[in-house]
Each structure stands twice: as structure tokens, then as C-alpha cells.
Specification:
Cytochrome Bc1 Complex, Chain D, domain 2, single chain, mainly alpha, binds heme C, 14 helices
Length: 299
């Protein structure tokens, strides 16, 4: 069993590409908007308020805080490598990054605006009028605002993690314990759900298969109203997971130890030794990649 799964699955995780193609002008404008609280109704919250690019691309909180201190009801995932997710949001309700942008802007407890108002406000800003006109014949529109932000997010990738260097052939890039963790990640069955270039993010699965996960959020059922979609969520990417505590869609765990133990019991119906948990956690830490250049340079 162990050797078969190792053979079958070992190719399933692919290293991140070093670069993705993106339009440099759109990326710069998207970056400006990503950091600009002008997108929120009261001018206090930017995308970066909940997606801190210096700290793993999320906000480190169980639930995010939006305008007027309002608290949401779901954990903010990282924006890093989100471009490689097959859908956006925990329940996959946005098909891509462009469609996703409308979500937080129009969410009353996040930015509390509407795309109409956002466009109106931006159209009063000389610098933005000029910047959009330089790129688009139709200037500032809903579509173009989403387009530049999504273009910026495309370059938010974190290549060169020790594990990716290992996958590319540098056998000394990770330690013996990390290798042991990777073997367990395969033999225990984690890789059945967490694989692909994002080590997750490429399909949906039920949260709580062998044991009820006691989730108060119905996941994809909220969108489809199909019984079989109850508690079904997008399998999250495990890239940079060491930086994005707390874990799960409801931020219920603060440590990777707890998350790994819960996964083994609830998703795989297995028992796991503390030593094995530690090895998997050490392996997960080797998935932390490099912050892209564009984020390191001040605006
Ligand atoms: C108030 C906090 C907050 C703000 C502001 C915010 N987000 Fe988010 N973001 C979240 C939360 C919470 C989720 C998860 C929501 C869900 O899945 O239902 C999320 C999800 C996402 C995702 C999906 C990632 C994935 O793996 O599914 C992307 C991409 C994203 N946000 C980008 C942005 C952009 C771009 C902006 C600015 C236009 C923004 N966010 C503003 C909290 C925030
Ligand atoms: C049957 C599919 C499946 C298997 C097997 C599985 N997972 Fe998961 N994993 C998920 C889903 C779905 C979630 C999201 C749960 C939720 O809704 O919060 C998740 C979440 C996680 C998280 C939290 C990520 C975050 O950003 O919040 C970690 C860490 C994790 N899994 C690690 C593992 C490890 C390690 C194993 C093996 C011991 C494993 N998983 C096995 C489907 C699976």
C-alpha cells in the first residue's frame, strides 16, 4: 500500500513556476489599488488590510475585520499563488481572480462599497483617470478595475521553497526529517487531496469524511443547494501554510500540529503518532517560498 501510493502520487506535486506572464503596466496599477483604501466605503480598508503581503498574504486572524470594525464569519485565505487555484473562495463561488475582486468590495462587512460607487470615486481621481486611460480605451470601468487587480495578483507567486528545490533535483534542499514528513504525507494519504502545483486548490472535497467536522458553514451547499455539497469546500493550498495560521475555513486551529492530527482523523479515518505529526509539520514548513520582488520593493 505504502509503496504503491508513493509510486502513484510522487509526481502529483509540481514545483511553482519561477515567473508568470503578466502585463507590467497593469501589474503596477493593480498594486496601487490593492494597497489603496479608496476601494472601501469609508476609505479605511484596502485589500492589503486583510491580505498582508509581508506576512503570508492573509491577516493572521480567525475572522477578518472589515469597515467599522465588523467581523466576518470565514477565515481569510492567502492571496499568494491564488492564481493557481481552480476557483476562488472557500466555496469556489468566483470562477477566477477577476470575478473574485467584486466579492470583498461589495461585501458589507469587508469593504462595504459597490463596484458602481468604486468606479465613481476612482473617476474623481486624476492619477487613476490618467493611469487607466493609458492602458484601456474605455478608461475606468468595473471590468478594468478587476482586470488590473487580478493582473497584480498573478505575480503574487512564491517560487523556490526548499521543497520545490528538492522536487527540481536538489536532494539536499530539505532535511531527512522533512523527507520523512513528505513520505508520510504520501503514505498516510494527504496527497490524495493536497496535490498539484498548489498542493491543493484544484478541486472540492467534503470537510469531515470519516468523522463529522462540526462545521457551522455549509460550504458549497450555500451556492448549489445540493444535499451532496453540504460541508464541501475547496481543498486549500498548503503552500506557505506555516505563515497562515489560524487554519481551516473557520480558523479553528492555531497550530499545524492540531490541523494535521484533525485531518488524519477526519479526512482519512486514521491514527497518527505524535512523531509522525511532527515530521509532517516540518515537511509543511518546507513549503514556504520566496516573496516576489514586486512586494519587496516599496510602492
Ligand atoms: C475585510 C477583509 C478582507 C478584505 C478587505 C479583502 N479580503 Fe480577500 N478575502 C477575505 C476573506 C475572509 C476571504 C475568504 C472569503 C470566502 O471564501 O468566502 C477572502 C478571499 C480572497 C481570495 C480567494 C483566495 C482563495 O484561495 O480562494 C482572493 C484572491 C482575495 N480574497 C483577494 C482580495 C482582493 C483583491 C481584495 C481587495 C479588492 C480583498 N481580497 C479584500 C478577506 C478580505
Ligand atoms: C479527503 C481530502 C483530504 C485529505 C485526505 C486531507 N485533507 Fe487537508 N484539507 C482538506 C479540506 C477540504 C480542507 C479544508 C477544510 C475546511 O473547510 O476548513 C483541508 C485543510 C487542511 C489544512 C488547513 C489549511 C488552511 O490553510 O487552513 C491543512 C494544514 C491540511 N489540510 C493538511 C492535511 C494533511 C497534513 C493531511 C494528511 C494527514 C490532509 N490535509 C489530508 C482535504 C483533505
Amino acid at each position: 500500500m505504502i509503496s504503491i501510493s508513493t509510486i502513484l502520487y510522487s509526481d502529483l506535486i509540481k514545483p511553482l513556476p519561477d515567473q508568470v506572464k503578466a502585463d507590467a503596466r497593469k501589474v503596477q496599477l493593480g498594486k496601487k489599488l490593492f494597497f489603496d483604501p479608496i476601494l472601501s466605503k469609508d476609505g479605511t480598508i484596502s485589500c492589503a488590510s486583510c491580505h498582508d503581503l509581508q506576512k503570508g498574504g492573509d491577516d493572521g486572524m480567525k475572522f477578518s475585520r472589515g469597515i467599522r470594525g465588523q467581523i466576518g464569519n470565514i477565515n481569510a485565505p492567502t492571496v499568494y499563488n491564488a492564481v493557481f487555484n481552480f476557483r476562488q473562495f472557500w466555496d469556489g463561488r468566483a470562477k477566477d481572480l477577476k470575478e473574485q475582486v467584486f466579492g470583498p468590495i461589495e461585501n458589507p462587512v469587508e469593504m462595504g462599497h459597490s463596484m458602481d460607487l468604486t468606479v465613481k470615486v476612482l473617476k474623481k481621481n486624476k492619477a487613476y483617470i490618467k493611469a487607466f486611460n493609458e492602458i484601456y480605451a474605455d478608461g475606468i470601468t468595473h471590468k478594468n478595475v478587476a482586470d488590473v487587480i487580478a493582473e497584480f495578483e498573478k505575480v503574487l507567486i512564491t517560487p523556490n521553497s526548499p521543497f520545490d528545490r528538492y522536487l527540481k533535483g536538489d536532494k539536499r534542499a530539505i532535511s531527512e526529517q522533512e523527507k520523512e514528513g513528505y513520505r508520510l504525507f504520501q503514505s498516510k494519504g494527504c496527497i490524495i487531496c493536497h496535490h498539484g502545483v498548489n498542493i491543493g486548490g484544484n478541486f472540492y472535497n467534503k470537510f469531515g469524511i470519516y468523522k463529522d467536522a462540526n462545521s457551522s458553514n455549509l460550504g458549497r451547499y450555500n451556492i448549489t443547494k445540493r444535499e451532496e455539497d453540504k460541508y464541501v469546500f475547496k481543498v486549500p493550498s498548503l503552500r506557505n501554510v506555516a505563515l497562515t495560521s489560524p487554519y481551516m475555513h473557520d480558523g479553528r486551529f492555531n497550530t499545524l500540529q492540531d490541523a494535521v492530527e484533525f485531518m488524519t482523523e477526519h479526512q482519512l479515518g486514521r491514527y497518527i503518532e505524535p512523531r509522525e505529526i511532527n515530521a509532517i509539520v516540518v515537511f509543511l514548513k518546507s513549503l514556504t517560498g520566496e516573496i516576489p520582488e514586486i512586494v519587496r520593493i516599496k510602492q
